[in-house]
Amino acid sequence: MINKKQIKILTLDDEVEYTQTLFHILSNSGYAVKTSNSPIEAFEMMKNESFDVVITDLMMPTIDGIQVLKHIKEYYPKTQVIIITGYGTIENAVEAIKKGALTYFIKGHDPENLLQEIENIKSMKEEGVLKNLDNEKQFSEVNGFLLETKSKVFAKTLEIAQKAAKSNVNILILGESGVGKEVFARFIHDSSRRSSGSFVPINCHSFSESLLESELFGHEKGAFTGAAATRIGRFETADGGTLFLDEIGDTSLDTQVKLLRVLESKSIQKVGSNASKKLDFRLVSATNQNLQEEITLGNFREDFFYRISSIVIRIPPLRARKEDLESLIAFFMKKAQKEQMIKISNMEPEVKNFLLQYDYPGNVRELKNIIERLVVLSEDGVITKDTLPICTNYEKKLVESRGFEIKPLKDIRKDFEIEYIQKVLHACSGNLTEAARHLAISRRQLFNKVSDYGLK
Ligand SMILES: Nc1ncnc2c1ncn2[C@@H]1O[C@H](COP(=O)(O)OP(=O)(O)OP(=O)(O)O)[C@@H](O)[C@H]1O
After folding, report:
1. Fewer CB within 10 Å, N side or C side of the chain?
2. 327 lines ligand 1 (CB under 6 A)
3. What are the Response regulatory domain coordinates in residue numbering (predicted)?
């Protein structure tokens, strides 16, 4: 049974009072309601939050209700639209229904009718009548991330993560930068018994040693200059949930000792306090460093390493799961279009080839960034190959990732010829006659090539 609070409604009208009236009617009936007085603002809100219903006025100055409806049907097909109209514009409202609005409501009529429509949407959702629309979503997203895979190695990694999530042990996630270590940490939290608690991420690299400790442990008022008030640390915020320490390889040996003590005693003392507090959190850490090597170099404590790594999850780089590129490209394309409010109708084949061939040293993050830029640079809904160099330095990257440059055969022949003639000339101490004899061409022909190619 869905409760009314789970039905999220956005009301949009350029008349502030009318949105307020609707806000009171709907929120007093128990629904979760937000309001907006401009379509642009409403579009921004929809990017960050999904709504079950948008109730929009038909007549608005710059962007009218029909345009709002079109936008919603294109980018948020799951959202139902109810059109608000005055008597004079009922015909337009009927037109809106033909274009996909669920129904219309006439201003000034008994709000009970509107509430009944929303109640209908709630029941449709309960009965799964709207499920087909839900299924229009192409991807099985987990909290906005794409975790479906065709890659055996990635599927295995996900399986380990899921199993590890069910346990209560500390987990260490390894992998190159941008592979999705934080995405995995969140996935583990969401799949665990702790999912109703907080997921608290902290990047150890972003803080100096003393700031990191104060950030993690919190401090008492007056514990040090500037500590004007008592502050709760991240350990405490993560109580009952998951603490994610990113770039754990960047913590100092001193901090490692303090963290180890917390993990062993399962309690903390705020900076400036003698009282200790028992805590219950799971630690997920991540790094792109080779911690074994850091242990050998004396930069990482072995006892700490064993404490944080009861289970180690290694996320493969993107180049090791190229079978997922197609769906990741489509996923980020869809996301970028929604975020940039740009509709892409075509992508030139060269762009697609590049996206499928490139090796992505920056992993998923790099793929996501490239696609965002391609969408922004598109012209009239088309992503052309001209935009690739601007956004990726693409020829160079392609050559680097492939290990060689693809050129027309005649250019390759020429490159080879230049290199070879140079070698032969060198071997013959620059004597043209002798070199020509070895190359089985006339002295005249060799002379022409030397001057054409600018050889000495
Ligand atoms: N499976 C995925 N689905 C959608 N987006 C993803 C996925 N994996 C990674 N990303 C995106 O790629 C970017 C990098 O991911 P994340 O920060 O988790 O990587 P990381 O390995 O922790 O990187 P770093 O080592 O730099 O901290 C983020 O913007 C994230 O949203």
Report:
1. N
2. no
3. 8-122
pLDDT at position 140 is: 60
Q: Say how many Å lie between the CA of residue 398 and the centre of ligand 1.
A: 22
Tell me which of 3.40.50.720, 3.40.1620.10, 3.40.50.2300, 3.30.1330.10 is the CATH number of domain 4-135. 3.40.50.2300
CA 147 from centroid of its chain's CA atoms: 11
pLDDT tens digits for range 387-423: 887 666 666 666 766 666 677 787 788 888 998 999 9
Return the residue whose CA atom lies nearest to atom 1 of ligand 1. Answer: 146
Residue 185 Cα: closest atom of ligand 1: 18
Question: Does the beta carbon of 28 sit less than 6 angstroms from any atom of ligand 1?
Answer: no
Taking each helix axis from N to C terminus, what angle separates 181-190 and 152-166, rounded to the nearest 10 degrees?
Answer: 40
The CA distance from 347 to 33, in Å, is: 39
Ligand 1 in reach of 364 Cβ (< 6 A) = yes
Pocket residue to mutate for ligand 1, from 368, 369, 373, most atoms within 8 A of Cβ: 368
Q: Is 366 in the pocket of ligand 1 (CB under 6 A)?
A: no
Which portions of the chain are predicted below pLDDT 50?
Answer: 129-138
CATH 1.10.8.60 domain position(s) in the chain: 319-402
Domain range 409-452, CATH architecture: Orthogonal Bundle (1.10)
Sign of CA dihedral 38, 41, 47, 49: negative
